Amino acid sequence: MYTLKEVAQHNSRQSCWVIINSQVYDVTSFIDEHPGGPAAILQYAGKNATAVFNATHPEGTLEELPKKSNLGPVKFVPGDRQPNAKTTPSTSAKEPNATPHLHTIQNLTDFEAVAKDTLAPNAWAYYSSAADSLHSLHRNLADWSKLTLRPRVLRNVSRVSLRRNIMGHASSIPVFIAPTARAKLGHRDGELCLARAAARHNIVYAASSYSSISHAAIAEEIRRERVVNPGARVGQGALAFQLYLPHDKEAGRGVIGTARSLGYAALVVTVDTPVLGKREADERFKAELEVEIYGGQLEGEGEGGVRRLAEPGGDEPVLRGYHSSALEWDDIPWIREAWGPGPLIMKGIQTAEDALRAADAGVDAIYLSNHGGRQLDYAPSSISTLLEINIFCPEVLGKVEVYLDGGVRRGTDVIKALCLGATGVGLGRPFLYALSGYGTEGVDKALQILSDEIETSMRLMGVVDLSELDNSFVNTAELERDLVSARSLQASLRTHHKL
């Protein structure tokens, strides 16, 4: 056993011990590997990190450390004062103003305002941050307004159906919960809030590789919700697993096999993250934390805690290379084989050329996304990519299902995407904001708002079934002016056909 005094002596980069759940861990060798940068660990060096660790990590994380890292239990003696990590204004939740009653929330933007007022600064920075100048983030929101709707009148719309087959699941509405990481930053129940809401509304929840609740617990929660509320909704939700391919292929096979064994029904492979984008709000928070910890000991500018990671067998470390930077089209067959039957979806398509190639690559669906504006700045919005596909290679829409996310805040946004051939529409940040303010009930309310807006819009459009929607219901002239020139794109597509 180790005393608190002994643990407190190991409070540096050279020797870093922390207390988690009454056990002492030597995490010195892991300091430079932590996704949040060295400061994320060093602020708790020699201290009790139990509260913050359990709030941000899924069960089983400690078991992934080498066994020798667990040095044994801590010994508490009378008179000891636990060296708890200091809570700073940057990591503690704000004292909120009077939080609006959930009943008064009228739209998804209302949830964002509440979350901004209540989340700790580090949580807000992580959820809201985007790449570089935020152009992609802003365009995701703005491009929806460049499409206008063309309603039909004098039609019997007394009964409407919002049902849609999403990722192999008979969903109650044409919406799914997009993959988002670290939901416990917003609420202690984290991703469980999303799983419960998915079951209650009978929709698909695509759980992130970086969920802060274990994937086994998420799967168990959606099963539990089905038992607690039997027959509440037909099907009662389904789970998809979002995959970042790790550097090691065999490790990737293992993750895929685990997802399959846990009952995840679809695999969403993210292909737009050979490196992470430069998310300045998040990186600024980490840099400020480093200054707070190291002070005058910082030498030079360094890389602001940004890691370089080497690919297996690679010559040079890759800046921000947290996932495989060597993933190629030729890898799709082994991923297909490892996953087996069931929907395989390629997430991160941003051009008509890649959409066309993906449709011929053996996947069941493509997922148009620029990662919420968090990867490449000045990337196209997903709705503009969908329009590009409509104009230059519409045959894609007949080969694979098409999903998208990015900037969706209204039921009319969903309708516009369906008019242009989308199978279903995902939302990420709005649900994080909803759970941050109100937990599971917030996500419930967000889904109800979306459902109501979609249903109302359908009736005002003069349609009673989503299958009736097509491009004749939407005016795309303004957004078309922003698309890549026809001449250059057609040349690029001809090159694809030659391949």
TrEMBL record:
Presence of the UniProt keyword Flavoprotein in the record: yes
Region ranges (Disordered): 62-98
InterPro entries registered for this protein in UniProt: Aldolase_TIM, Cyt_B5-like_heme/steroid-bd, Cyt_B5-like_heme/steroid_sf, Cyt_B5_heme-BS, FMN-dep_DH, FMN_HAD, FMN_hydac_DH_AS, L-MDH/L-LDH_FMN-bd
Polar residues bias (residue ranges): 84-94
Catalysed reactions listed for this entry: (S)-lactate + 2 Fe(III)-[cytochrome c] = 2 Fe(II)-[cytochrome c] + pyruvate + 2 H(+)
Major localization listed first in the record, in broad terms: mitochondrion
GO molecular function, one term: metal ion binding
Cofactor(s) this protein requires: heme b; FMN
Compartment list: Mitochondrion intermembrane space
Domain FMN hydroxy acid dehydrogenase: 100-479
Enzyme Commission number(s) of this protein: 1.1.2.3
Keywords: Flavoprotein, FMN, Heme, Iron, Metal-binding, Mitochondrion, Oxidoreductase
SMART domains according to UniProt: Cyt-b5
Transmembrane segments: none
Sequence ranges assigned to domain Cytochrome b5 heme-binding in this UniProt record: 1-75
Uppermost EC category: oxidoreductase
Gene Ontology cellular-component annotations: mitochondrial intermembrane space
Family: In the N-terminal section; belongs to the cytochrome b5 family. Belongs to the cytochrome b5 family.
UniProt subunit comment: Homotetramer.
Protein name per Swiss-Prot or TrEMBL: L-lactate dehydrogenase (cytochrome)
Species of origin: Aspergillus mulundensis
